[in-house]
């Protein structure tokens, strides 16, 4: 179907590369001009001060725009232009990371953004459906130099060299797949495949579930979809932003370079642990405790925990007020409590109603005494006198203390910490749980776990925000503003280094940092709130995102789904995952079950069927296990073979560490470049990690291991979503035994390799 050639059939390869070099150099020249122009304008805007409030605000948005432009033009430096489409009508278009117009702004761009409709045939055209394309050319570049090219002539009569009828840009694709891994995910913008393109460019509204086996590009697709949506629906998403949720911090670091390389910085990347502003949930707890906290029964538990804080005393309470003792009867409190509850307001917002009732009752006592008619007639006080008494009572420390005791204003953190710390409170709030389950909730204060985050969020809903929460938010926003101010200066410094290089050409520009410091910039920002949408969203628990993307979504608990749905009232979501890889005990084995409570059956399913990571030899091993997990599940088809069969070796238990070190050393020696992943049972990460790092000091292990190390030792939970050139899986039986979802964990472990897989099994004898 397609012809791959070193010679294009028109010009010798070198000449052809030379011609492409001319074009690519021209594009870089134009990119430099645009970047310099943006940097110059940024500097000019930052130098200008004064003017009306409106002028300041306009200037501030210009500063943001130019700062973003400088950032974007720098981000697309590597691989700026990667493709060319020759039409049957003789047209010729270059495809790249951003769109570039010529100086006159002619309609025909010099470079077409990969997300633009005009670029789409680059990804979709096949010999059977050429879409007006005669030839697709992939350009390979290193820095600004064209190093090679691959052509596909979309000619139905030409034979396919590999029989992969469905692949587009096959030579470039295979080159990308066979390249050594660096510990950082790369973008796939040059070689997006047809089934992936359909997901990436699916319309914005509604819930789209992307189900696909290991290595089918779900993460890659999720990231490119974020970039596509921000480009195509910029107006809709500019103010509301896009949230991308990943399974853990290591994974976010792994993917963190992809969107900047696609010149998109407007996506907020977060783990579940970071979704409650002001809380960093790093505490560790048992899988069972996390699973319990993920169940929706916790909504009832929290509701009861809040009710428990709305107290009615058993005995009358005595309150001292200016040397006088007032008595608060349980019945008075009960009536006040019931009225406040009936308002239906969240706890903290109902407190004023409770206060009114209680203060009113106490004021009546005072009025009865001081307004009593000595002759036995009606009380002598007017309503204005009573109002004054109520006002004074509110200020009384004794009254305030009583109100705080009976109906305390609570933060979510206070509610949850008090609940966990006290078995009696747990017993009151969770009668529906078993004693063992209640024991799982009990713990001393001191940090939060990721499974606490949806509970904090739920508690925040039940409590309503009090003033302290709002003040905390203002403080967080201020901190982010400072960060932003520093970021702008950083960009300005970056742009300056480009300018400095150009000084030889007479292009000297006065540096931004010569004119303004972070504090002054911050002052100006406070006048005109100029945070990026993502930054504002990060600080605000009640932010409603324009679109939410969830990766490894099978791991989300029902409580986590509730949180995410609150963040996305428009239900515009992309949910990416593989139900066969579910490891969390409260994770989902079925998309229908997870989504039904929120959108019933109004969601679309897209499936990715081809694995780009895992070679056929390794996928065959994983496929046997998949059948055990669920005979109905089908493994993805591997796009390539490595020619290296996986090995599986049994060693005596006492030799395991030594054998592992020896095998790791061999794998490292066998790789030119690239990374080795050693996946071990969670219960052996400490000793086996220590053994490997003792022998190979460059190896990384720990809570957040450095993925760019040659060797990384990690658990399955840490390895989720990652990949390595060579993978050693240690003690698979124990990995399976460690969790009720152990077989899915092993499936994840076996599918992390791009080239080679080895399995080490200890025996007891
Ligand atoms: N079209 C493509 N072109 C080049 N590389 C690709 C393409 N699609 C996927 N890949 C590569 O395949 C590998 C696996 O992709 P990715 O991590 O997105 O898969 P996944 O479906 O999320 O896997 P898992 O379920 O195991 O987390 C990555 O190295 C990715 O860059």
* Helical fraction: 40-55%
Distance between the termini: 57 Å
Work out the strand percent.
5-15%
- In the predicted model, the low-confidence regions spanning at least 5 consecutive residues are 1-9, 159-164, 495-512, 524-529
Report the radius of gyration as a whole number of Å: 32 Å
Give the overall average pLDDT: 88
Q: Report the count of strand segments.
A: 21
The number of helical segments is: 30
Largest sheet: 6 strands, mixed
Note the quaternary state here: single chain
Q: Please identify the structural class as seen in this structure.
A: alpha/beta
The neighbouring-strand order within the major sheet is: 1-6-5-2-3-4
Which ligands appear in the coordinates? adenosine-5'-triphosphate
Shape: globular
Organism: Micromonospora globbae
Keywords: ATP-binding, Helicase, Hydrolase, Nucleotide-binding
Protein name: AAA family ATPase
């Amino acid at each position: 179907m397609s012809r791959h050639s070193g010679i294009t059939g028109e010009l010798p390869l070198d000449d052809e590369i030379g011609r492409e070099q001319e074009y690519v150099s021209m594009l870089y020249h134009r990119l430099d001009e645009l970047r310099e122009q943006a940097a110059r304008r940024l500097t000019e805007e930052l130098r200008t001060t004064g003017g009306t409030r409106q002028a300041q605000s306009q200037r501030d948005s210009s500063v943001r725009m130019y700062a973003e432009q400088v950032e974007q033009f720098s981000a697309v430096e590597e691989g700026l232009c990667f493709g060319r489409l020759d039409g049957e009508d003789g047209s010729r278009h270059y495809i790249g990371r951003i769109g570039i117009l010529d100086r006159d702004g002619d309609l025909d761009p010099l470079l077409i953004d990969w997300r633009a409709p005009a670029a789409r045939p680059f990804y979709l055209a096949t010999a059977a459906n050429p879409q007006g394309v005669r030839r697709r050319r992939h350009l390979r570049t290193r820095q600004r130099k064209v190093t090679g090219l691959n052509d596909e002539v979309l000619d139905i009569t030409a034979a396919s060299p590999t029989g992969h009828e469905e692949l587009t840009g096959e030579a470039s694709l295979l080159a990308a797949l066979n390249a050594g891994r660096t510990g950082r995910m790369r973008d796939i913008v040059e070689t997006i495949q047809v089934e992936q393109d359909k997901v990436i460019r699916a319309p914005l509204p509604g819930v789209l579930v992307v189900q696909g086996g290991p290595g089918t590009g779900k993460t890659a697709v999720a990231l490119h979809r974020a970039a596509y949506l921000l480009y195509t629906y910029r107006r809709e998403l500019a103010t509301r932003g896009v949230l991308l949720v990943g399974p853990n911090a290591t994974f976010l670091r792994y993917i963190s370079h992809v969107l900047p390389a696609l010149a998109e910085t407007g996506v907020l990347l977060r783990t579940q642990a970071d979704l409650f502003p002001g809380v960093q949930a790093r505490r560790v707890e048992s899988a069972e405790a996390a699973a319990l906290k993920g169940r929706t029964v916790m909504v009832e538990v929290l509701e009861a925990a809040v009710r428990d804080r709305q107290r009615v005393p058993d005995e009358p309470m005595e309150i001292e007020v200016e040397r006088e003792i007032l008595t608060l009867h349980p019945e008075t409190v009960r009536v006040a409590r019931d009225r406040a509850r009936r308002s239906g307001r969240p706890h903290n917002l109902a407190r004023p109603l409770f206060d009114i009732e209680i203060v009113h009752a106490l004021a009546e006592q005072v009025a009865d005494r001081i307004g009593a008619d000595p002759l036995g007639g009606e009380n002598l006080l007017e309503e204005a006198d009573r109002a004054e008494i109520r006002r004074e009572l509110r200020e009384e420390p004794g009254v305030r203390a009583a109100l705080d005791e009976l109906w305390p204003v609570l933060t979510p953190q206070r509610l949850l910490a008090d609940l966990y710390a006290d078995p009696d409170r747990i017993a009151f709030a969770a009668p529906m749980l078993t004693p063992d389950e209640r024991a799982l909730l009990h713990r001393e204060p001191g940090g939060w776990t990721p499974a606490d985050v949806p509970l904090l969020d739920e508690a925040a809903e039940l409590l309503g925000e009090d003033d302290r929460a709002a003040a905390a938010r203002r403080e967080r926003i201020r901190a982010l503003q400072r960060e932003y101010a520093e970021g702008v200066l950083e960009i300005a410094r970056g742009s300056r280094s480009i300018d400095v290089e150009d000084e030889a050409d007479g292009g000297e520009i006065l540096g931004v940092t010569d004119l303004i410091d972070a504090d002054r910039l911050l002052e100006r920002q406070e006048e005109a709130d100029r945070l990026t949408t993502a930054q504002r969203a990060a600080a605000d628990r009640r932010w409603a995102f324009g679109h939410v993307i969830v990766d490894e979504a099978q791991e989300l608990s029902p409580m986590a789904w509730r949180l995410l749905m609150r963040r996305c009232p428009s239900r515009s979501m992309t949910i990416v995952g593989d139900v066969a890889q579910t490891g969390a005990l409260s994770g989902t084995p079925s998309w229908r079950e997870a989504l039904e409570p929120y959108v019933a059956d109004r969601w679309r399913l897209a499936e990715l069927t081809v694995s780009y990571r895992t070679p056929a030899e390794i996928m065959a091993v994983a496929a046997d296990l998949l059948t055990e997990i669920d005979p109905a599940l089908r493994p993805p088809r591997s796009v390539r073979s490595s020619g290296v069969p996986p090995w599986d070796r049994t060693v005596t238990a006492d030799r395991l560490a030594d054998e592992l070190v020896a095998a790791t050393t061999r794998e490292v020696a066998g790789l030119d470049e690239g990374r080795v992943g050693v996946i071990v049972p969670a219960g052996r990460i400490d000793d086996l990690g220590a053994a490997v790092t003792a022998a190979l000091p460059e190896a990384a292990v720990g809570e957040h291991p450095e993925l760019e190390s040659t060797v990384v030792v990690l658990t399955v939970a840490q390895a989720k979503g990652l990949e390595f050139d060579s993978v050693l899986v240690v003690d698979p039986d124990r990995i399976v035994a460690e969790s009720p979802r152990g077989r899915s964990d092993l499936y994840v472990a076996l599918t992390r390799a791009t080239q080679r897989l080895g399995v080490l099994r200890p025996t007891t004898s």
